[in-house]
Design a protein that fits this description.
Elements (H helix, E strand, L loop, with lengths): L1 E4 L4 H11 L5 E3 L17 H16 L3 E10 L20 H11 L7 E11 L5 E12 L15 E3 L11 H7 L1 H13 L2
Parallel strand pairs: 1-2, 1-3
Antiparallel strand pairs: 3-4, 4-5, 5-6
Helix pairs in contact: 1-5, 4-5
C-alpha cells in the first residue's frame, strides 16, 4: 500500500520513512506524488490541523495520507506560541524572528517550562483515521545554543538533558522527540 506524506520537509520525510517503512510499500512526499496543494491550517488544535491536512491529501491522492502538526507551548505564555509556532513573529518559518520574540516575551519570566507537541494522523480514502500525539517536555533557555535542528531547537532544553536540542545530533533527537513519540504510537496502532 502507498502512503503520501503531506509534506516536502526532508527532515520529516526521512524520520517518517525510517519508522513506517515496513508498514507501507511506498512512502512519497507531496512532490514525489505530483501533488501541489497547500492546506489552510485553521484548526484550533494540532490534531485538527493534522487531520485536515491528511484528509485533503487522501482525497486528492486516493490513497492513505499522513500529516502532522507540531509546535511549542510555553507555560508562562499560556501555551503560546502553540499552533502558531511557525509564524509566531508573523512571517511563516522565520526561525530567527520566532526565537527572538520568544526570548523577549520570556525576558523577565522565571518559569521557563515548555513542551513540544506533535499530532500525527493517517487518513484513509474511506474517511477513517489513525491518530497519535507525542510530547517532549523541557524548558526555554535564556540564549540560543547549538547549530543543529530547526525552529526553536536552539532554545529548548529537554528534561534530563544539559544540552539544547540544537546541540544534539539528528539521530539523538529523532529517538526521543515529540514526533518520534507520536510516530511510535502511530506505528503501534497500525501494526495491530
Amino acid at each position: 500500500m502507498k502512503l503520501i506524506l503531506a509534506t516536502n520537509n526532508l527532515h520529516k520525510i526521512h524520520e517518517i520513512q525510517a519508522i513506517l517503512c515496513d508498514r507501507f510499500e511506498e512512502i512519497l512526499s507531496l512532490k514525489e506524488a505530483g501533488i501541489f496543494h497547500e492546506t489552510v491550517e485553521d484548526g484550533e488544535t494540532f490534531l485538527e490541523n493534522a487531520r485536515k491536512k491528511a484528509d485533503e491529501i487522501a482525497a486528492i491522492a486516493g490513497c492513505p495520507a499522513l500529516a502532522d502538526d507540531s509546535g511549542l507551548s510555553v507555560d508562562a505564555l499560556c501555551g503560546a506560541p502553540g499552533i502558531y509556532s511557525a509564524r509566531f513573529a508573523g512571517e511563516h518559518g522565520n526561525d530567527a524572528a520566532n526565537n527572538a520574540l520568544l526570548l523577549r516575551k520570556l525576558e523577565k519570566e522565571e518559569n521557563r517550562k515548555a513542551h513540544y507537541t506533535c499530532a500525527v494522523v493517517i487518513a484513509y480514502p474511506d474517511g477513517t483515521h489513525v491518530e497519535a500525539e507525542g510530547y517532549w517536555h523541557g524548558e526555554i533557555l535564556r540564549a540560543p545554543r547549538g547549530v543543529s535542528g530547526f525552529g526553536y531547537d536552539p532554545l529548548f532544553k529537554p528534561d534530563g538533558e544539559i544540552r539544547s536540542v540544537a546541540e544534539m545530533t539528528a539521530e539523538e533527537k529523532n529517538k526521543v522527540s515529540h514526533r518520534a513519540v507520536a510516530l511510535a504510537e502511530l506505528y503501534r496502532k497500525i501494526a495491530k
